[in-house]
Amino acid sequence: MNEARGFLITIEGGEGAGKSTLVSALSERLARAREGGGPGREVVVLREPGGTALGERLRALLLGPSFGGPLIGPRAELFLFAAARAQLLDEVVRPALARSALVLVDRFSDSTVAYQQHGRGLSAQLVRCAVDGAVGPSQEGRPALTLVLDVPPEVGLGRLAGEEPDRIGGEDLEFHRRVREGFLAIAAAEPDRCVLVDGTAAPDAVLDAALLAVAKRLGLAV
Ligand code: T5A
Question: How far apart are alpha carbons 58 and 81 in whole angstroms?
Fold first, then answer.
């Protein structure tokens, strides 16, 4: 496999934190950016779980309604998210990075740590095993930059009021508080990779913070 020359950027945070909104605005700005008068980089936008035929099928299973779907226990849930990620990396992310693309992913490994470890209560050791197994041994499946959008769960869930919650989004407030603590712990533990962004700020301010992080951390002209 060629050495990766692109950048993997992940956007993380709880329900309704504004990830999709940011991914859409950021991808537009990155697609217009030019480095040294060059033609600009390809920008690939993905979401997890999803982004491949297998990933979209797993998404439907994992995020279907709480009632009426198959019972999915916490350990099965962990490995289904890991399976979707392994496929996405092999089928889409690694080839894109090898083409020097900027790959923007709405949720990645940190969501597994926040939701399956902190939220569901699975052991750190088991979750690390699934996360590392999905990403594989090479560095190229590891994000160069992670933007963690922080909002209190009451705010994020409030933004989604009126929408039918999915199987995981419909968990109780205590679950979503643990998930938020999980994301905050990850951001604090890995300051070189993660930038914590105040997700309660206006969308334009969130985008500005993200652009600043991309420029400073990755040295990209945006
Ligand atoms: N999951 C996922 C795991 O448990 N483990 C894993 O390993 C992975 C990968 C994914 C679910 O799967 C779980 C986590 C999730 O429960 P999803 O469909 O991707 O589900 O759902 P979410 O990621 O939660 O996405 P949402 O659409 O619910 O929220 P977003 O993308 O964070 O928020 P967004 O941008 O859609 O905005 C929501 C609303 O808020 C407004 C928007 O206009 C919109 O109305 N908004 C703002 N309002 C005020 N200020 C801002 N700054 C705003 N930004 C957006």
Answer: 8
